[in-house]
Design goal:
mainly alpha
């Protein structure tokens, strides 16, 4: 179940992510650098606004759904809280509007619409995840990716400005959330339940604010401390990482989360730790080689389709952002998740707060001199420190018992694969890139198989068992004691 759902969730992010990458690449050709930089700033501002205003509610929904799914008032209460957040954002925008010059008013309202549209889409998607409906989530994501690609490219082709393209993206996202919504019961909400959700989600408001100051704020810092053209290069690299590594991480974490919550709610700490261990193995085993491959092959990917003026920025920043994506995924999918399962979400405030302060401090020092590269370095260092901070807190309050030996084996296999990719000559065209990726994947699997034979990587067995037990006429492999397989 974990492998199957994880594969569907990865596809649910990968396929729309490719559509998003196609839109980003097309816009880099269709929009002038200044407008393209404004578009990148707008996307970052929408992500930042969503994190600050709505993400706490999505987190509360994910954590409470399994224990409240029989209560018809639960989802009604969640929707009422969403509407209250929209109203609060509207009132704040009205205040800001009074202080803005008229030339910036249109951008403000486009950003507000984008934030609310993104919030609604993500809330509907999270309900499908909680209900174990990965195919429904896949349909929603594909619809949004298709509509955003068509709308943004059409507006840019017609000569629209960066603000107009942002408005098109917001409208397409809202349309996708309205066309394929989750089914909701028409009942009244519960005030006590709403207060409980707010109390649970309150630490997430600060956590999401600090997380946004570690990631989403970076294009804004680049625009303020360097230039909009630097924002364009960073946006392309960040998008490339998102549609590959972030997609993989999100898909695996989306599959792990409901089972981990169910195990935690059962009152069996051992079952919860087993789920976290399996998620760690699955996450690192897939994400680490992808990150190494992307870091090595990013220049070749850029030369295929991206405007040459951004090639240097992509080559410089992608390795740093790839490392950052792996570190962030491991922290969110293992350590942060452990805090949430034991309801110690206040610890996340300290972890993300420290990362935000460090990222801002390093950004102010590095971005004026190094531009987009300085932002990538600052973010990666801040996230790496936050991983160590979270590990120390987890060891004291909720140790997840992660299989570190297997992690070291996977890191060795990924390093061997990276060395092979770096030594290979660059093959021309898309076909050459595909062959290179296949060669790297084969090298990684062979290295893992060799390590498993020497007893250094027993993490292969539970994953293969999950696949082979469904194959007709095949017996499942026995799972090692440390990662004993749990039926989903």
């Amino acid at each position: 179940m974990l492998v199957r759902d994880g594969a569907i969730y990865i596809a649910s992010r990968a396929l729309p992510g490719l559509l998003g990458l196609a839109a980003t690449v097309a816009l880099s050709w269709l929009l002038p650098p200044d407008d393209y930089g404004l578009y990148g700033l707008g996307i970052a501002a929408i992500a930042l606004g969503h994190a600050l205003i709505f993400e706490w509610l999505s987190q509360g929904l994910s954590r409470w759904y399994q224990s409240h799914q029989e209560d018809p008032r639960f989802l009604t209460t969640v929707i009422a809280l969403f509407a209250a957040c929209c109203l609060g954002a509207l009132l704040l925008a009205l205040v800001v509007h009074l202080a803005l010059p008229a030339a910036r008013a249109a951008l403000l309202w486009v950003l507000l619409g984008g934030i609310c549209a993104h919030g609604w889409f993500e809330l509907m998607a999270r309900i499908h995840i909680c209900r174990f409906h990965p195919t429904r989530y896949l349909a929603m994501s594909l619809l949004r990716g298709t509509l955003v690609l068509a709308a943004t490219v059409a507006i840019a082709w017609a000569g629209g400005s960066g603000v107009a393209v942002l408005a098109a993206a917001a409208g397409a996202t809202l349309a996708a959330g309205l066309l394929l919504p989750a089914r909701l019961a028409a009942r009244r909400g519960d005030a006590a339940l709403a207060r409980a959700l707010v109390a649970y989600g309150a630490p997430f408001c600060m956590t999401m604010a600090f997380a946004a100051l570690t990631t989403s704020i970076n294009p804004v810092l680049i625009g303020a401390l360097a230039s909009r053209e630097e924002v364009g290069g960073f946006t392309l690299s960040f998008t490339l990482v998102q549609v590959t590594l972030t997609v993989i991480a999100y898909g695996i974490n989306a599959a792990v989360w409901p089972f981990a919550v169910r195990a935690a709610d059962s009152g069996d700490p051992a079952a919860m730790r087993r789920q976290l261990a399996r998620g760690f193995v699955f996450l690192l085993g897939v994400l680490l080689p992808a990150a190494v491959g992307l870091a090595v092959l990013a220049p070749a990917v850029a030369r295929l389709a991206i405007n040459p003026k951004y090639h240097d920025a992509i080559a410089q920043t992608t390795p740093w952002l790839s490392a950052c994506a792996v570190l962030m995924a491991l922290r969110i999918g293992c350590l942060d998740l452990a805090f949430q399962l034991v309801r110690r979400t206040g610890l996340l405030v300290w972890v993300t707060g420290g990362a935000a302060v460090l990222n801002l401090a390093l950004g102010v020092l590095l971005i004026p001199r190094f531009g987009a590269l300085g932002a990538a370095v600052a973010m990666t260092v801040a996230v790496a420190v936050s991983v160590g901070h979270a590990a120390l807190l987890a060891a004291r309050h909720c140790p997840p018992d992660l299989p570190l030996r297997e992690g070291m084996a996977m890191a060795l296999a990924a390093a061997l694969m990276g060395g092979l990719l770096g030594a290979m000559p660059e093959l021309p065209g898309v076909a050459g890139l595909v062959l290179t990726v296949l060669a790297g994947g084969a090298a990684y699997l062979l290295a893992l198989a060799a390590l498993e034979q020497f007893g250094l990587a027993p993490m292969l067995r539970p994953i293969l068992a999950d696949l082979l037990r469904r194959a007709p006429g095949r017996a499942a492999l026995p799972a090692p004691a440390r990662l004993d397989r749990e039926e989903a």
